[in-house]
Amino acid sequence: MRRTENSYLSVASDDRWRYAPRTGVNRALTVIARSIICVSFVFMIFPTIDLAVSRWFANGAVFFLTEQPVLKGLRDFSRQSLICIIIAMLLLIGLHIFLPRRYRFCQPHKPLFVLLSFFVGPIIVVEILKVLIGRARPRDLIEFGGNADFTPVLQFSAACVRNCSFPSGEAAAAAAALSLLVLVPAKLRRIAAIALSPCLLFIAFNRVLFGAHFLSDVVFGWLFTMLAMVWIWRWMEARAKDIDKFFARTRP
User: Does the keyword field hold Transcription regulation (predicted)?
Assistant: First the structure.
């Protein structure tokens, strides 16, 4: 039986859809999702990795780097930087609304993306999981002088009621800081990412040195936030013009 012209067009469109190249955002989603699956598998098969890494930085029941001045200063700097970033992003949006002719170097959807990254990752995702999982911090375990039992990552536990260990909020905030790369010119973005990432990773790992988090708390806090960020950007990228127009309409 002969195929009609419409049937050929239908097959061609199906082939284009099936073999269409994926965007960078979709590739990033795939990589992060697979990373979460692989990391989950490793920590579930070898749960004692967390205890082993924490013991490296403990002398008996004492985490000997807790009072290290440089590390404490780094933590204070990261926490203060978070406040400065939020204020700066709100200021950028405000300048675009009230002084659009003088400050047009940044479309408002970009600082909005940064704000949403910090709100969704370090606040919503992290705080919900802290309550659901209820994992005790390393320094609260019996192994390190506390009275709580160790629970493997991703396992529901009643060992902690508030301010729990999983996932790390500061690791999530460090990951969310990568959202600032949208403010960097595209040609310099890769270089900026290479320069910024090691610093942010060390800020995140700093919590392991203090006995405040397990290695898995930091890794999952980072990955969950990255996944949330990419989803947010995927949504915002398709609506960037509409978002910018909305802020334009709010001008006095």
Answer: no
Write out the DSSP string of the chain. -PPPHHHHHHHHHHHHHHHPPPPHHHHHHHHHHHHHHHHHHHHHH-THHHHHHHHHTEETTEETTTT-HHHHHHHHHHHHHHHHHHHHHHHHHHHHHH-TTT--SS-THHHHHHHHHHIIIIIIIHHHHHHHH-PPPGGGBGGGTSSBPP--TT---SS-SSS-SSS-HHHHHHHHGGGGGGGS-HHHHHHHHHHHHHHHHHHHHHHHHTTSS-HHHHHHHHHHHHHHHHHHHHHHHTTHHHHHHHHHHT--
Q: Which pLDDT tens digit goes with each residue over 243-252?
A: 888 877 766 5
Domains (ranges, CATH) in the chain?
Answer: 23-249 (1.20.144)
pLDDT band at 186 (very low <50, low <70, confident <90, very high): confident
